[in-house]
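Researcher: For the annotation table, I need structure tokens for Ribose transport system ATP-binding protein. Please keep the output clean. Sequence:
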Amino acid sequence: MSDPTPALRLEGIVKTFPGVRALDGVSLSVLPGEVHALMGENGAGKSTLMKVLGGLHQPDAGTIFVNEQPVRMASPLDAKSKGIVFIHQELSLSEELTVAENIYLGELPRKGFGLVDWSTLYARTADILKKLNVGFGPKSRVGDLSIANQQMVEIARALTVDAKAVIFDEPTASLTDAEKVVLFDVIADLKSHGVGIIYISHRMEEIFKITDRITVLRDGSYRGTLVTAETTEDEITQLMIGRKLDLSRNTTHSEIGDVALEVKDLSCGRYFSDVSFEVRRGEVVGFYGLVGAGRTEIAETLFGLREPTAGAIYLDGQETRIHSPTDAIAKGISLVPEDRKGQGLVLGMNCRDNMTLPQVADLTSGPFVAEGAEIAIFDQYRDRLDIRTPSWRQTVGNLSGGNQQKIVIGKWLSMRPSVLIVDEPTRGIDVGSKSEIHNLIRELAGQGYAVIVISSEMPEVLHVSDRIVAMFSGRIMRTFTSDEVTEDNLIQAISGITPEKVA
């Protein structure tokens, strides 16, 4: 029996930008009814390849085939007309329009005199939403939906056309566990109807759960295609980054110093209550818990974004009040937020200006900013953090996720804090950059910083933390040292189970 005809095939794709060969003869084929993972470090060429496929970039060489017919993708609409549908990580919705209008934008059903056929529009949308088992309707305003539900609207768009191939780019980044189940059901349904799926994700557990084959890119080049059931995480990782990773439990111990930050009985409305902990210089304290446990809200309170309703904060043994981020920065507290693109960076600005943004007033003489001083700060932290960019002039939005995160960390380190809070330090970052960020956190502790790491990934908190604070429903359930913590007792704690109940 002959092999099935690929639903989609890219052959020898080359794309060069000034000074950078982003794609160097990359090939990829997706079979009908196959879920095909595309993996690689940030900057490996995945996004560029998908932009070529979607008509946003024209290749310098190579050919795209749909059902083995050579095609040219002139634009995203042209790609969609040929059956290539994208579910983007970055939402591309119009918040003021309804769900139905967003799903059928540019393709609204019409009746006489060109008027929109609203009844048909809402009926079609209702059928699609029923398949997704969502809790909102066709007439809901998209701007009123949660980020997770907006992601489901993006996914609904894929169900409106006769798709040959659907590309999912980090689709679960903002979904709950329940919504992930619905997404995987949708993918299974598309697969059963012979649709080819390209699935881009850094989450290994998802890759091994739902994909059939895995193609790996590194530095713009094709590194191989493996059958998922016949490979391992280690093999994929080595293809991606060219080396093995150390993802073991933290066994390094910095010299622990005095208490830099102490929190006593701190509360903030409905978000958390009676929270007490301390962080010493040279120590990494990890905060772990389910979504809604109150971890991020504690960080925001310490950084002056929220006003506490009770309790006290001590810095170097002295009680202090923090009313704003300006207060926090002045007192030596810095926060790397969980949403680096929305809260940590100005994506249209260059690397240097992002790095020096919090201290631009201090670098200003009259109406002018001291450019030399800014460049010196950027150069210092580019070298210290190994930020990979051609120059400080590079727009931050063009950097890989790992390098963007290093820019945010460098920005706050340049303020010379004594307490550094890092919220979800490796969200949306590939495994190689993740390892670098983990090593950086341990190095910062070794240099005497008091570090708080908030993470939703158990391996991450186990790998970087000296102590782990387990939270449930706005309260601290238990605090573990790295020696005594186990996966079982950590899960029990974040599920609200006390040691007494276990006994």
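Researcher: And a one-line annotation?
Model: The CA atoms of residues 254 and 443 lie 9 Å apart.
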